[in-house]
């Protein structure tokens, strides 16, 4: 299945399917003088046979560890050491973190070299679309980066078969978010299809739908001045939680989505979300909802204020759902404190 | 004097004049919620009174020392520490190096924040125009960076009065290059006006002309796929020389221009440049031409091959002057070796 972006120009294709990796890499490589690979070291170990055709990859530390400034510099220097040129092509193979950091390396080495995202996790179906690149700062996640579109995304679903449970739960967080952005009904269909656990074959159609939902939003608002903010649904608290407790991004997103549900109900003063229904579903799938009970609210607020979307002091920007319509609201810090206290006590 | 860029969109103004700093900073600051300053620490010391209105600047190591990856990360973390937001504005105050590195910080913090270049050297009349940002790699100069236009350039010529002789010589290298790109006649007029030394008041009209020449080239070819390469006149060898011998950039450019003259004469097999005339002029102004005698040619070639403009192995891209027309030529390594040997022996 090929999904094409719909920007006014410089479009690219998101290829989704089983066993498509070799063919697509070969096809894209033809147009370039030299090819480079940035690969998550763990992915490289897990898929040694499939990736054995790659002779001299730049291996990065696995997962979030690839997003430190030091690791970024090391990767860029390795690419230069290996003789990268402006008309080279870089394939970035790994999960969301590898994609973010590899994309940032590609966008800044020699002031920008073409690159292709090869996501290997469920989560990366999200981050590989939209052309945002990022590394982490000592002051928060994703605070350093660029907007730099890939030349293509090759999403070979074979990679998903080796995902550990915690990664599956993490990636599912973004899938769930995309459905919720569409409508509560769509989310409920997904819930029905995963009542007995998350199985990759059942998810394929939701992955494609999720990519399309995201594609449509980022096409309209590439540089996040309006609608793109909606993709941040659940993320404001999620970033603070994962920064503090160091658990997988998409799992934190589920916790953030649950917090968003309770805040939306309060903010709009109507019962948009059936909280016990969602709580039980998330709990039964194994999400660590207990962090919502344990969190230090002062600390969460301090971390949330670092968020790039915040424009005003003493206010925190949140995406809420007004029934099935996402809305960006700047909420007073004091109100947020109340909402989070209530949430904490309800658990 | 205001010079406006002529891109299809997102144009900006280059303000050139005496004592324009305060007024312009005030005017641009009005449109933003918060203002940040990245300032070369030496410039800040030298101009403490003029800059005393700035309360909490991010001071950077002076000159090229600001362009290490470590210093880049430190500056970005300081901006975040001080609470920079997406709708903040950054003024980058300093020479060419500060502008390059400060521009890179601005273009990557929070995925890009608006910035204004405030060049304080002669050299920076060049680097502040065109929207290239850069830091240095262990493998060569300017190998990491972005294309990111400033919102304006404020070129207050008062800063030039405190320039030490070596900086004056350095900046003059790019002024001379711009005139040569226009024509040998233009270069000769500049030579006539500087026979008795380089004086700022005499240079003003050449600075403005230089900015216009550069502006016209970068407008036509922002991302350096064609004509913009011409601005690299003299730079291929210059980058290698300054990397090796650590002397000011623009001084190396003069040496590189002299090498370009000898290569152009050889390559086109006609006497385009009167070599003894230029040699004597550069020598009398005090340029360290002796490095052309001392340089290790193998090492220079190795360093030149790192240049971003090189697309093919065993060839090095040079900008040559065919009479008054700049041309990009990919020259075999073996030929370059011959040319440089001949140059070395002629000195």
From TrEMBL, chains A, B:
InterPro entries linked to this entry: Dehydroquinate_synthase, DHQ_synth_AroB, DHQ_synth_fam, DHQS/DOIS_N, DHQS_C
Swiss-Prot/TrEMBL catalytic activity: 7-phospho-2-dehydro-3-deoxy-D-arabino-heptonate = 3-dehydroquinate + phosphate
Entry's EC annotation: 4.2.3.4
Keyword NAD in record: yes
Cofactor(s) the protein requires to work: Co(2+); NAD(+)
Keywords: Amino-acid biosynthesis, Aromatic amino acid biosynthesis, Cobalt, Cytoplasm, Lyase, Metal-binding, NAD, Nucleotide-binding, Zinc
Residue ranges constituting the 3-dehydroquinate synthase N-terminal domain according to the UniProt record: 60-168
Xref: Gene3D superfamilies: 3.40.50.1970, Dehydroquinate synthase-like - alpha domain (1.20.1090.10)
Localization in the cell: Cytoplasm
Ranges of residues in domain 3-dehydroquinate synthase C-terminal: 171-310
Gene Ontology MF terms in the entry: 3-dehydroquinate synthase activity
Family: Belongs to the sugar phosphate cyclases superfamily. Dehydroquinate synthase family.
NCBIfam families: aroB
This protein's name: 3-dehydroquinate synthase
Originating organism: Corticicoccus populi
